[in-house]
Amino acid sequence: MSGRTTALTPPADAGPPVRHPEAPAPGEVIGAHYENCFGCGAGVPHGLHLEVRAGEGVAVTAEFRVKEAHQGAPGLAHGGVLATALDETLGSLNWLTRVIAVTGRLETDFLLPVPVDSVLHLEAEAVAVHHRKIYCTATGRLGGPEGPVAVRADAVFIEVKVEHFINHGRPAEINAALADPDQVKVVRAFEVNP
């Protein structure tokens, strides 16, 4: 982005996000895009293991159980881990629009401490699109979908081509992902933010 700051407020001429006709149905589990993704993959023992579900419109929900490995201060979730949970949930919105995009900017507000062993209920929604920019918002609530907001974020994702990952990723992982005989897994590996 050449050192420029990306505004979190969409411009006046931004349009609404459009759900792709083949997007997962509301309530359907979206699934991991890549086994070794820290946010959603099962192949990372201390990862977040988020299970994201499609919502109505261009929205998703997820749950995140804070484990001991996610601590910052004793007994509390690390702020960076909470930001990652929000970022992963926001990135999952790309499954609903069928756009390959990466995080351009993420601004996070921490409102309440999140204890180890608590469950954070995450909701994310795309609110506007302007050229290659997708404007989104997310919240994390303690204890349930109606619980108090502990953390929230606003983000801008930037649409990219698959070459972004091929040109910048480590060749061993890129080649392994591309060589998988399951072509659905190949496509999924590059569909949401890394």
SSE blueprint and pairings:
Blueprint: E1 51-54, E2 59-65, H1 79-91, H2 94-97, E3 101-110, E4 119-130, E5 133-142, E6 149-159, H3 163-168, H4 171-179, H5 183-189
Explain what the structure shows.
This protein has 194 residues and is an alpha+beta fold. It has helices at residues 79-91, 94-97, 163-168, 171-179, 183-189, and strands at 51-54, 59-65, 101-110, 119-130, 133-142, 149-159. Strands 1-2-4-5-6-3 form a 6-stranded antiparallel sheet, covered by helices on one side. The longest helix has 13 residues, at 79-91. The protein is globular, with a radius of gyration of 16 Å. The mean pLDDT is 86.
Please tell me how large the radius of gyration is. Answer: 16 Å
Q: Structural class given helices, strands, pairing?
A: alpha+beta
Helicity level: 10-25%
Q: Give the strand order of the largest sheet, numbering strands 1, 2, ... along the chain.
A: 1-2-4-5-6-3
Termini Cα gap: 17 Å
Give a count of the beta strands, DSSP E runs of length 2 or more.
6
Beta percentage is 25-35%
Could you list the spans in which at least 5 consecutive residues all have pLDDT below 50?
A: none
Average pLDDT for all residues: 86
Number of helices: 5
Q: Assign an overall shape.
A: globular
Could you state the order of secondary-structure elements as H and E? EEHHEEEEHHH
Major sheet description:
6 strands, antiparallel
Short description:
Helix content is 20%, strand content 28%.
List keywords for this structure.
single chain, 5 helices, 6-stranded antiparallel beta sheet, 194 residues, alpha+beta
